[in-house]
């Protein structure tokens, strides 16, 4: 499994996704760890087994064991936080003043550079649609020195990986197969 496997699995009508996957996989605006971790965290957030297996297989050799664990942890903790903080943001009222009472220790000690973990959390939060989390993580990575172009690249990866997952699910449901 690899990025090429994913590209081959996409139907012809998803040609733009194939092209985006290829160009983003070769993006030079992020460090190798930032790029690989963003792909892994985004794949896990996509909730599609084929996408997860392909991307993790592609990027595991490019990440240390600690970085791979941190990318997985970013997807896991944001899976919880994005629901909770999206609720707080949508409802407003007293909820924002109440302590969350949810364990989030990995955010303080992710095992990799804090900026990388925050970037991965931003990508997952974009996929999960939590505006409050996106704003918070974007602010943190910008304060840590990442440029708007680097942030945009991470979100482009998240958007493309998510779109690939959605398209593959639809292709299965519709019986669409790639052209030979």
UniProtKB/TrEMBL annotation:
Active site as annotated: 130 (proton donor), 133 (cysteine sulfenic acid (-soh) intermediate)
Assigned keywords, A-Z: Antioxidant, Disulfide bond, Oxidoreductase, Peroxidase, Redox-active center
Pfam family, one: CMD
GO biological process: one example: response to oxidative stress
Domain Carboxymuconolactone decarboxylase-like, residue spans: 94-171
Top-rank EC class of the record's enzyme: oxidoreductase
Stored InterPro entries: AhpD (IPR004674), AhpD-like (IPR029032), AhpD_core (IPR004675), CMD-like (IPR003779)
Top-rank taxon: Bacteria
Cystines in this chain: 130-133
Protein name per Swiss-Prot or TrEMBL: Alkyl hydroperoxide reductase AhpD
Lineage of source species: Bacteria, Pseudomonadati, Pseudomonadota, Alphaproteobacteria, Acetobacterales
